[in-house]
Write a structure and sequence with these properties.
The protein has 240 residues and is of the alpha/beta class. The chain has 2 domains: 2-116, no CATH class; 123-235, 3-Layer(aba) Sandwich (Rossmann fold), CATH 3.40.50.11810. The chain has 13 helices and 8 strands. It has helices spanning 9-14, 16-28, 44-48, 52-65, 77-90, 97-106, 110-117, 137-143, 147-154, 177-180, 182-199, 209-222, 231-235; strands at 2-5, 32-34, 72-74, 107-109, 126-133, 157-161, 203-206, 227-230. The longest helix is centred in the C-terminal third of the chain and has 18 residues, at 182-199. It is globular. It starts with a strand and ends in a 5-residue tail after the last helix. The relative contact order is 0.16.
């Protein structure tokens, strides 16, 4: 199967290893991966800040960057949620309406694609450690993933998944929310970390690197030893 991939701007700039690991996982699942180097952003930051005209310009480029009617896979639930849930309103009654619907139909978050489309849940990964999983708001509420990441983690040898209290509660990132309302965002990250510490987990895993980035900042500032890992990085661990 030939699939396109969308790598969010912050993963491209700050966590490129996660992008490479997603490619490795998809290839191990039997996919041939295509990457359009012209891709940039889905427009979510501008949309959330109220700059819909600018977001529409970015979204138009996004749609034109994926002109083929084939699956698009991304390691970011929030970007996928943006395209699936808000592009329809942006491009309603425009010349790109048909192309927009095609992109919305074809784009998937990584775990959703692996479990529900490819039907592959075991990648032979090995990861020794106690982990807890953070359900991102976008993944849970906009994309509808809950069990999919856990199904994949259950097949990672050596990994012990311990559920935290209030795993479905926001970590406080929310894109520009964490910049505009820093004290609230920090307080929410603090509570999330308190819940993580109660599990005695060594790692926080999620399908959204943006959430992990926010929590990583808090952990580093407080000098706490807990580490963050994207689901793709875990699934690509321990291969021979």
């Amino acid at each position: 199967m030939l699939v396109d991939i969308f790598i969010p701007c912050f993963i491209d700039q700050l966590y490129p290893t996660t992008a490479w690991n997603m490619v490795r996982v998809l290839e191990k699942a039997g996919c041939t991966v295509n990457y359009n180097p012209n891709q940039t952003c889905c427009g979510q930051p501008a949309f959330n800040a109220g700059y819909w005209d600018q977001c529409k310009d970015v979204g138009e480029k996004f749609i034109k960057d994926f002109p083929n009617d084939r699956y698009i896979v991304s390691p970011s639930a929030s970007c996928v949620g943006m395209v699936k849930n808000y592009y329809g309103e942006l491009f309603h009654n425009t010349t790109l309406r048909t192309e927009c619907k095609s992109v919305q139909r074809n784009i998937y978050e990584l775990s959703d694609f692996l479990v529900n489309i490819l039907k592959v849940t075991d990648f032979g990964a090995h990861f020794d450690g106690k982990v807890t999983y953070h359900d991102s708001c976008s993944g849970l509420r906009e994309v509808g993933i809950k069990q999919e990441p856990r199904t994949l983690l259950a097949n990672v040898k050596g990994l012990e998944l311990i559920e935290m209290v209030d795993t479905e509660t926001c970590c406080g990132f929310g894109g520009t929310f964490s910049v505009k309302y820093e004290p609230i965002a920090v307080g929410m990250a603090e509570q999330k970390v308190i819940n993580v510490e109660a599990t005695k987990a060594d790692y926080i895993i999620s399908s959204d690197m943006s959430c992990l980035m926010h929590m990583q900042g808090y952990l580093k500032k407080q000098g706490k030893p807990i580490k963050i890992m994207h689901l793709a990085d875990v699934l690509a661990s321990g291969w021979e």
